[in-house]
Amino acid sequence: MNSKDIVYVNGAFVPRAEARISVEDRGFVFGDGVYEVLRVINARPFAAKFHNDRLKRSLEGVRISLAGGASPESLTEIANQLLRDNGLLQGEATIYMQVTRGVATRAHNFPPPDLPPTIYISVARFTPYSEFAQTGAPAITHPDIRWGRCDLKTLNLLPNVLASQTAKERGAFEAMLIRDGVVTEGTKTNFFGVVDGSLRTHPSDTHILPGITRSVLRDLARTVNIDFDETPIRAEEIPRLSELFLTGTTTDVMPVVRLDDKPVGKGKPGELTKKLQRVLAESLASGGD
Ligand SMILES: Cc1ncc(COP(=O)(O)O)c(C=O)c1O
Questions:
Q1: Which residue minimizes the CA distance to atom 7 of ligand 1?
Q2: Cα–Cα distance for residue pair 225/75, rounded to 1 Å
Q3: Residue 170: DSSP 8-state
Q4: Choosing from 4, 49, 56, 153, which is the catalytic residue?
Q5: pLDDT > 90: percent of the chain
Q6: Residue 135, CA distances (Å) to 43, 139, 285 in order
Q7: How open is the CA angle 115-117-118, to the nearest 5 degrees?
Q8: Is the CB of 232 under 6 A from ligand 1?
Q9: DSSP 8-state class, residue 137
Q10: Nearest protein Cα to ligand 1, atom 12
């Protein structure tokens, strides 16, 4: 990140150091907003339609409207301009988009509906996690203390932040969250495990974020005759996991080889995980076509 990078705030393209948002912004005061993160390869946002649809769904879910008939697609156009302005047309980058309910005197209930939302978009150079992708990463288990609408990609990430920090302090890459005895997902990833030969992951309901990588991988997996079983993994099944991996826009398919300081399976990336890593890598390299 460089203070001279150009970012977009409410209609203006400005250097990051000059970007300003009011202290009364409801994103700042209440975390009242939603966001998206997209992966870009050689100027092409990967799975853009999935991200646009999820942003639309998150906005509807928290009842925020984009001003003046703007659409998630128009935000992607702005991001494309930022990629050009910041010299990121070649190689890998990420796009961050955030929409908050706007600037208003602090009150819990909504401000008037004609209040324009705050829209912030930035882009950054991205380098994939190549080492952990090869060797596999350590993870920990952690209680899932989040709210009941984890399917919306909102700014309310404090439980994720706290669990992620605990993972870091214990030398782990990610925390695998457990709610009511069931593995839900990670703080910034979806989790998949192989139990008795079948690939299992939590169903797409209000307890997890419907990950774009999860959706893309489901379609890709079918092309190599692998199916997901959406029967969540129960905590007591963890010792029987022969493979474990996580997925995310910036993590791809990442093997998890140690959980709570114990090896998962043989303690190295499993065959099914490596196969799915390969199909996703090929899809990313071809721009998702
Ligand atoms: C809680 C959570 N789960 C899963 C994911 C993975 O989603 P995606 O594949 O769309 O990046 C993320 C991404 O940020 C996340 O925050």
A1: 211
A2: 36
A3: T
A4: 153
A5: 94
A6: 29, 13, 21
A7: 130
A8: no
A9: E
A10: 188
CB 31 within 8 A of CB 147: no
pLDDT attached to residue 4 = 81
For tokens 């984890």, what's the residue? 150
Angle at 63 between CA 59 and CA 69, to 5 degrees: 65
Structure tokens at 191: 């989790």
Residue 153 designated active-site:
yes
Q: What is the pLDDT of residues 141-199, one digit of tens each?
A: 999 999 999 999 999 999 999 999 999 999 999 999 999 999 999 999 999 999 999 99
Sequential DSSP letters for 4-65: TSEEEETTEEEEGGG----TTBHHHHH--EEEEEEEEETTEETTHHHHHHHHHHHHHHHT--
> Taking the complete model, does pTM exceed 0.85, yes or no?
yes
**CA nearest 95: which of 153, 151, 35?**
35
**Domains, the chain, ranges and CATH?**
6-125 (3.30.470.10), 130-285 (3.20.10.10)
Ligand 1, closest atom to CA 153? 16
Q: Is 219 exposed, middle or buried (0-12, 13-18, 19+ CB in 10 A)?
A: exposed
Express each pLDDT in 217-235 by its tens digit: 999 999 999 999 999 999 9
Instruction: Name every residue whose Cβ is closer than 8 Å to that of residue 131 and which is 6 or more positions away in sequence.
Output: none
| Residue 208 DSSP label | S
* pLDDT at position 1: 67
Structure token pair of residue 194: 């192989």
